[in-house]
Amino acid sequence: MPDSSVYADVPRFLTLLLPRFFWVSMWVGSALITASSIAYFDFATLPPFVIEKLPVRFETLWLASLRVHVASALLSFPLCLLLMTRWLQRRRTWHRWVGRFAGGLVLIALVPSGVVLAFDAKGGKIVTAGFLLSAAIVAWSTTRGIVAARRRDLVSHRRAMRHVVGQMSVAVVSRALIVCFDAVGLDPDSAYIVALWGPVLAAVAIVELVPLESLFKSIKQVGGMFREASPLAVRLRIRSVVASVARTGR
């Protein structure tokens, strides 16, 4: 019979590995996107992506929105990743001011410019709807997170900010999926739709289903069996202790 200690190490291993894989992949993806986006700020020439998109309606507005969106995304995404780290969360003053700057950047620059670009997105109305949905989630969650932070409601604040990071991560995940779909020869139009809508919906589901206490559910071994440690279980244990104290008169 296998040693139970082996199984006890698996949840902890996954708890450590999966979040770290997410953060590392997001940082690497952000760096790659930054490197590939430098061409957008060469005002003397147009990058291939822009040439491919032209002509578009309101060309001047579209080009300005593209540069604003790229610049704000390249800055706000790494800042949001930093804000999710314990290192910055323990430094409340820094966390507060960095959060205010990132939140303002998202609401004033990132979301409005993204909405403009969405109407000329590759893939037609279905992809436009996906971009608009993602933008709405980011705008709503950022606003909700700011309001919750001012009320000192840290639980709601964390959940809202995870939605923001989740939707921002779509940029990295979507590009990775497009590369994979292209490698297997999937139809480009279908691949683009799946690569956008899949990460957008998955990010919402993960944030809503995973407990706030951790990015991944922790599992504890109890009496040779495994059970999930949840906030409900904690509350039940507290109630049992209170009831026991009441019965003993202590």
Question: What would you say this structure looks like, in words?
Answer:
- The chain has 250 residues and is mainly alpha-helical.
- The chain has two domains: 214 residues, no CATH class; 29 residues.
- Helix content is 76%, strand content 3%.
- The chain is built from ten helices and two strands; from the N terminus they run αααααααααββα.
- It has a two-stranded antiparallel ribbon with strand order 1-2.
- A hairpin with a 2-residue loop joins strand 1 and strand 2.
- Helix 6 packs antiparallel against helix 7 and helix 7 packs antiparallel against helix 9.
- The N and C termini lie far apart (45 Å).
- The N terminus is likely disordered.
In short:
The protein is mainly α. Helices cover 76% and strands 3% of the residues. The protein starts with a helix and ends with a helix.
